[in-house]
Amino acid sequence: MSIVLHHYPFSPYSEKLRALLGYTGLAWHSVITQEMPPRPLLESLAGGYQRIPVVQLGADIFCDSNLVANELAELSNNPLLSHERSTLEIKAFIREVEATVVFAGIFSANGKALRRKAMASMSKLDLIRLLYDRFNLGRKASVSLPGAKASRKILEAHLDNLEDRLLVNNFLFGSELTLADFATYHPLWFVRDLGEKTFIQQYPRVNAWMDCIREYGHGKMFELAGDEALHIARDSEPRAIADVYKDSPLIGKIVNVAPTDYRQTVTQGELVGVTDYMWILRREDSMVGRLHVHFPRQDFKLA
What we know:
The structure is a single chain. The protein is an alpha/beta fold. The chain has two domains: 3-79 and 221-302, Glutaredoxin (3-Layer(aba) Sandwich), CATH 3.40.30.110; 86-110 and 143-215, Glutathione S-transferase Yfyf (Class Pi), Chain A, domain 2, CATH 1.20.1050.10. Helices cover 46% and strands 18% of the residues. It contains ten helices and ten strands. Strands 5-2-1-3-4-9-8-7-6-10 form a ten-stranded mixed sheet, sandwiched between helices. Strand 1 (3-7), helix 1 and strand 2 form a beta-alpha-beta unit. The radius of gyration is 19 Å and the shape is globular. The chain starts with a strand and ends with a strand.
């Protein structure tokens, strides 16, 4: 089954998955989407979900990087990359990174280098639309996002912690890479490699660790046009839902799923699968037919 990643180059969470794909050596197809909604192609695949990245496996659509990590761990036979199978300590670490460090990294990266790269890759109109979109994202979020000054303090405290961890081991939780490494690599990539912020150079062990991950690259990537991704979905059938996933009184009901923190847009469909970690919705789309869309339960709500 082809792995299709819908992403754009500057997306931090997309870099998390691109780095994971490089490390696993799995072949994948790249579909570049624009930096902000509307994204008509993804609306056909994922309904109202508006975040990036989205991963497509045939007619199964995955709307969260940790759910994707579970799939990549299974495909590469590497359980250390699975969020579902991670230890409680690693899950807590990832949650803290995703709740605070990611946004602190995005705000800390702002500067001439990042603006220069953005202006080189999009038109002035698209850049204005992007800035307006990000302003609205923060204004409408239900979580408190840090300002520039607070972001720098959060990031420096995080870097201090990483530097201490890497004094003992080559990686954050031992001698092998785990999902925690990739979960905290991508916000720092945004700051150091895209934003070109030099204060990270004060952390030599962190830089060596980042360089190690970066050396794996992005793996065996093949470009794919958006309409070809739709054809893949249309010509595929969603994978079967195991009976163990059907033990819920809501199975078969039409439900809405939406994030609870930011981009709180709703996707509607028939609930066909439930696990401790995710909901699976069946959707019918005129462009591609039947799809199964996978959502995490963490930081999402069902109604």
